[in-house]
Amino acid sequence: MAQVFARQKAYLCAHFRKFMISVNNVTLAYGKRVLFDEVNINFVKGNCYGVIGANGAGKSTFLKIISGEIEPNKGSVDITPGERMAVLNQNQFGFDEETVLNTVMMGHKKMWQVMHERDAIYAKEDFSEADGIKAGELEEQFGEMGGYTAESDAATFLSELGVKDDLHYMQMKDIGANLKVRVLLAQALFGNPDILLLDEPTNNLDVETIGWLENFLADYQNIVLVVSHDRHFLDAVCTHVADVDKMKIKVYTGNYSFWYESSQLAARQASDKNKKQEEKKKDLLEFIARFSANASKSKQATSRKKALDKLVFEDITASNRKYPGIIFKQEREVGNEILKVEGLSKSLDGKLLFSKLNFDIQKNQKIAFISRDPLALTTFFEVINGRIKADGGLYEWGTTITPAYLPNDNTEYFEGSNLNLMDWLRQFVPPYVRDVDEDFLRGFLGKMLFSGDEILKKTTVLSGGEKVRCMLSKMMIQNPNVLILDEPTNHLDLESIIAFNDSMIAFSGIVLFTTHDHQFMQTVANRIIEITPKGMIDKLMTYDEYLADDRVKEQREEMYR
What is the average per-residue pLDDT within 431-447? Predict the structure, then answer.
């Protein structure tokens, strides 16, 4: 009996060393809406899992189930005893009365608790022998948890995330929202947690900070679950993809691009009924081998390549995702004069956003506008769309131009409207279009995945992603030859982002845009214009070339100095 018990104990110890998180028969429903139905999945130490799925599939909810914030209707989440979990806090106001530095250190709750318990003992006037023994025990715990270097460690995290030293002792309520998200990210990363849950960690981060986070997570030895709509980020950090689809979650080896391309290949294989099974297997194995070889170029090279080498072709299945049809057709091609900007400048509330903007646009150009100040970009787009007046300078559109604008904030297009989608879209049909019947409108809405009775849905109940898809229907119906896009991927799921990205690559007209989506920027833009309070940098190159150019780096530092 003792030997049996010993074997069982050894097995359990080995099991827990391998599986840090075990999700068992988890079911969650809100009324008749079932989000998860008997989900069974394990998350293993040393891996980073990108949690993907359509908007509303339950990605963020799943992270909350793992963290214990939400209790499932059935099933359990078992975590190896003694492991510490950290969650990226989404409440920017939850630490307003704390200093920035203390907010970070509070991420290690046990250490923070021990530190305060120890300090309370030392503050006693009647310090006893028992207090001394207890304080000694706490000092030992504090040291084991890295408490003696906690403050310097927290300061290092903050500095590397772009929060300057002079802000570290300020209260959270006195710093900007864009800095608060960085502090909360530092809080989650602080103290090397065993399990790290990150929901959209790249929101409001600049490209340099995102790059730092990519490198940090690529070297991270514990378990990470991350929800993100940034494909470049997912590719850089993830060893696995956890696909939330149809109330289930399935884990696939590889990063997001591997999952996407393999699922597309599997879908084509499934539809090709004439192809022999042996030929299909050969194609899939060649595909795995190609990605396995490319994995050596990744920051996650070793673990990802080992995992891919173990794949068999049966592991690859077709995705059930639906992709919208974003298709822009030009009513007419642009002429030689497109847009000319001379000496454009603008300030808001006494703050200079941009000045000395001078450029013109040529045919076949797709221009990414970037800035360290997102307000400058939105204001610039509002100016050239005639919605805000510039303080100085001028701009002039060519006579052949038919622009379509996707603003960052689309509230005005839906506010006060109680129309159904069909009648809402009807408002924006150009006057030269004839025979605007239900089938005509239904076609544009259908491309954006509004089908059946959904076209009778009221605009007042639309989600953020649905509103953007409506705006895209509005733009497509205008047959523009110039597209102006301010953060076009905001609120969209990965399927819509991919469709939008592919559409912009294929579009033969002019595109002026800004986005935080690295892959969108890199694959669409052939010209980069960075606008600053001191002027602008203008380069005919891709985004990655721009970031890597040493002369550009020097110019940028001078512009923002």
Answer: 87
